[in-house]
Amino acid sequence: xxxxxxxxxxxxxxxxxxxxxxxxxxxxxxxxxxxxxxxxxxxxxxxxxxxxxxxxxxxxxxxxxxxxxxxxxxxxxxxxxxxxxxxxxxxxxxxxxxxxxxxxxxxxxxxxxxxxxxxxxxxxxxxxxxxxxxxxxxxxxxxxxxxxxxxxxxxxxxxxxxxxxxxxxxxxxxxxxxxxxxxxxxxxxxxxxxxxxxxxxxxxxxx
Length: 207
Description:
Helix content is 66%, strand content 0%. The chain has 207 residues and is mainly α. The protein is globular. It starts with 13 loop residues before the first helix and ends with a helix. Mean pLDDT is 77; it is low at 1-24.
């Protein structure tokens, strides 16, 4: 891996994808996913600074969520690239609809004990608080323990899923309740995938 200047994380931007458009070899794309994920998580830790943390946290805005999806969304959930995709997907949901995220997290914390890894969240949380929370969680990609980052994100998703189910039980029409149940199930699956990735990271097998 080449030396990073000015502490910039190595990440392929839009020009990288323009160069491999068309009949993309899945192996080539998989390798790009693995290498970029490793550069972000494994390569930046020894040189972390506030500017680097900010760039990594806001990667979805700077590179575009579609770019991240093209690179990482096909990666299995028990891989480093797959775990990163799920972290950014969770953050993007919170930023796209912080009011709902705050409401569901607040409802969920009454149904599921808020894990200690979600310490410091303001009670009751508002839109600004949940945005700050997911940013704080995602900063762990660069600083702190990456397994802890995954566990914190998993806990957040689990609490929000419980809140979504609670909202569904209060729905006045069955279609709304059904849609919320399905959505809650997907959020819970995301939580379980992040938690498993965290365990693999602790074991040193998240590659």
